Amino acid sequence: MASIPSSPLRRASALALVLVLCGCDLPRDPAGSTERIVGGTLRIGVVDAPGWTDAAARTGAEADAVRRFAATLGARPVWRAGSESQLMHALQIADVDLVVGAIAADSPWDRRVGMSRPFPAKRYAAADAEVFVPAHVWAVQPGENRFLLRVEAFLEQDRQAAR
Known about the structure:
By secondary structure, the chain is an alpha/beta fold.
């Protein structure tokens, strides 16, 4: 096998390519979600999931976490209740920025929207009954990778703070 000659020009070109890639604006939000949300409005789709989210009252563990997340962005949360299917469609057409409500980590929507890393499965007591919530995720608009990274960073900090 013949070796590829290494010339100063080839090395300089490779170094220039690395520097350009390091300086680029990645990850990106093609629809500009992060820039629009920071200091503005976070549009949240909320699926009713007893104990985690009460869609009508906008309460529960996940709803509280979303409020904390919105505060880190300086954003005002605006809630929209609906079924998982309705809200995932709204997410796909950018009518909401985030969907929460014990969305299964193995949801069939995972190929059509952005999904956070899963929350671990959990059992807890709620209103005279024990509730089990399997591993679940938060969903964001497809392709909005910068916003997804903000969600991921918040969730990791929130998990660490809860320990």
